[in-house]
Amino acid sequence: MTTRVLYLARHGAADAFGKLTDIGRRQADLLGERLARVPVDAVWHSPLPRAEASAYELARHLPNVPVTEAAELVDHVPYVPSAAETPASWAGFFDGYDDTEAASGQRLAEALVGRFAKVPDASAKRTRPDTHEVLVTHAYPIAWLVRHALDAPQSRWLGLNSANTALTVIEYRNGLPPTIVMFNDMSHLPTDLRWTGFPERIRP
Q: Is the dihedral of CA 168, 9, 151, 92 positive or negative?
């Protein structure tokens, strides 16, 4: 049975200009230490600088693993819900999104799923039957992939937040639905580096 394992991680903590901070670099470094125990085949990252810098920081622990940009991983709103689908607390968030922007986000979301959320081609030549890929991206694409794996309604990406460098793992196997192995796991981070990226009011 061929298996694709995706290790999804939000980039490390960044400043208001989108540049990785010292805390973000430390978070990415610790995630790399954790992933060094995994037979990683590839690291993919969003085009945005905070994700690219995080990818190269963690990849220092993964010698000879290629690090490559993937346009589908860019930060984007994957689906703009209708008024009936939108929780009251999110209603104002979508003000100003026109039909063109919503359609562009939906196309990106479809491309993300089409490229990564599937079992690898069984006919491709590989040294192992399974593939293990790290995707360094943003909270919304992670939420979309989790929603897709659960076959949940499109609006259910809302509220599925991820902390900086938290790890989410999804497995794809032939003939089986995707498996969420873990979501938003921060066990590789010390207490003082956890939950960044979440509002202060909802950090445990």
A: positive
